[in-house]
Design brief:
The protein has about 160 residues and is mainly β. The strands form 2 sheets. The protein has a 7-stranded mixed sheet. Strands 1-2-5 form a 3-stranded antiparallel sheet, with no helix packed on it. Helix content is about 10%, strand content about 30%. It contains 2 helices and 10 strands; from the N terminus they run βββαβββββββα.
Length: about 160
């Protein structure tokens, strides 16, 4: 039986990682620090636990967000990447190349949960190109985002010719 492995990284590709071994618990945290750190309603995280984390390109810059925790992020594009506390390190789920298989199993910090989070799934849903006002410029959009796999090329400094 082979050891599971996962890859991921930031939006621009300046920081990439590989995890060898089983991931730990996956969760979402609604606490105000996680909201601010992610700029979002909550922060989905998965524990690395006993797995081996290898930074394969670059390394996150770290911000001490409290007396016990650090937050790691890409210094180039700002992508949130880690939560580091005395009980271990967790990675942001959406930073993985294939986040669909890492489903959260618990919510933490529910005292700070925004009141509309539980009803977002009831909002109407549309495909990106259904936005008629944006479709004209989206049709010609060129993404500089790093692909969801490792590559020798990465556009962290913008487009190359």
């Amino acid at each position: 039986m082979s050891t599971p492995h996962y890859t991921g990284g930031c939006q621009c590709g300046a920081v990439r990682f590989r995890v060898e071994g089983a991931l730990g618990d996956a969760s979402v945290c609604h606490c105000r620090m996680c909201q601010k750190a992610s700029g979002n309603f909550y922060l989905p995280l998965v524990s690395v636990r006993q797995a081996r984390l290898i930074w394969t390109r670059g390394a996150p810059k770290r911000f001490r967000s409290s007396s016990i925790a650090f937050r790691g992020f890409c210094a180039e594009c700002g992508t949130p990447l880690t939560y580091e506390a005395p009980d271990g390190l967790a990675l942001t789920i959406a930073a993985f190349d294939d986040p669909a298989g890492i489903a959260p199993r618990i919510q933490w910090g529910v005292e700070a949960k925004l009141p509309y989070v539980d009803t977002i799934h009831r909002l109407p849903g549309e495909d990106t190109m259904a936005d008629a006002e944006a479709a004209s410029f989206l049709a010609d959009l060129v993404s500089y985002q790093h692909p969801d796999h490792d590559t020798d090329q990465w556009p962290c400094e913008g487009p190359t010719s």
